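Hey, I'm writing a tutorial for new members on how sequence and structure tokens pair up, and I'd like a real worked example in the thread rather than a made-up one. If someone can provide the structure for the chain below, I'll link this post from the tutorial.
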Amino acid sequence: MGTHRYGRIPDVNGMAYLNANLPAPQTSFGGPDGRPRWTSNRLYGNVSDATVLTNQGIGHSSNIAASIERAFSSGLFAKIGYSYGTSKNTVDPGSIASGSWTGNAIAVDPNNPIIANSQFAPGHRFFGAISYTRDFVGVGPTSISIYFDDRSAGNGSYVFSGDTMARRTRT
């Protein structure tokens, strides 16, 4: 017997953060990069945190799965399956709004992040199981099973921190 499923779920009320104290960018990077650059990150110097929590409907997730299984009259059972899932959003929310905003790696405008892979996207998954059931000693059936599961390790990103001009002080 085999099964298959597909699902796509839009992110209707996804969480979003913005910093109400973030000024417009003061300059931009030179060369082909051209991204905005902040040399000052506060409109009001005496306000240390002005994180605003809001909603957006930009993200989505999808998953496709298939499996095949068979039970044999000898007591043997076998099953194999595969699934692949994606998840995209602008921020992976956490329990503290300001920490989620500051911990969100952004390439352009922190108050208007682009959609990207979620750190919770499941990726590829393969699994299989074999089970044998028999009444070995006459008091009731016993099952012996072997299970295999292999999956993607998740998403990763390279995040640069520090001086984006890569200037170093030599002594």
